[in-house]
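writing this on my phone so excuse typos. first protein, seq and then structure
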Amino acid sequence: MQPTPWTVIAIYFVVALVVAGAICVIPGLFTRKRPTKEKLEAYECGVPPTSQFTGRFPIRFYLVAMLFVVFDVETASFYPWAVRLRQLGLFGFTEMLTFIIVLGVGYAYVWKKGGFSWR
């Protein structure tokens, strides 16, 4: 009996969830938990911390980090396109031009909203 494609996908997801859960749970079962003052202290590149930071990071920090990841990944898609530019012809060129325009509009929108400002 041949399994259906949906059965194979379901088995794949079940195995992925079991493996991910095992990777998260098993190390905690076998490690020793002996917290000391030094282990619980924040590590700052070998320099003793100057103060205890108990507040929250500003949302701008996360926003800039996420925007960097988004635009970095989008920019990385230029390399495969550049390698196959001759085979793609005019269609590939117009598709990439459209992609660059959409990316530029998104970049301009974020810039206009102040997404790249640290203040």
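second protein below, same order as before
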Amino acid sequence: MTGSGTDPWAPYRTAVLHFGDPPSFTMEVSAAVPDATVKALHKAGFDAAFAVITAHHPFPEKLPEAENDARHRELADEIARRKWLHLPCTGKSPDGGHEEPGLAVACGRREAISLARRFGQAALYWWDGEAMWIEPALASTPREQLTPAG
């Protein structure tokens, strides 16, 4: 997701994550996570912490679709090379006017931040097993908890 204006996290706070291809479940990043979503995450193998990372639109650029698609394939190849559990995950604005394909990735927080930096991302989503966070990668803005814990 791409930040704008004086509040870089505004679009991150309202995103809806669509897991799978085609999507089989969703998560509103700023809302309490329903038990059914937690069960769907567990069924997909995500029993603990994971990141959601995109390679689209490296901060602060807007790239053509073909270039974003190539960057996404490179990200997917790197995650597969590392043999990390992953699942397609597209972040969308609530009105569907903006979307960025990415991947939910079962890896450590530091590894996720490093990978997001490598792909020029301001931030990533981090699920700690109980709550969703906006985790800065290149941005200097502090991390922010989105969903209520528990």
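The chain has one domain: 11-145. thats all i got for now
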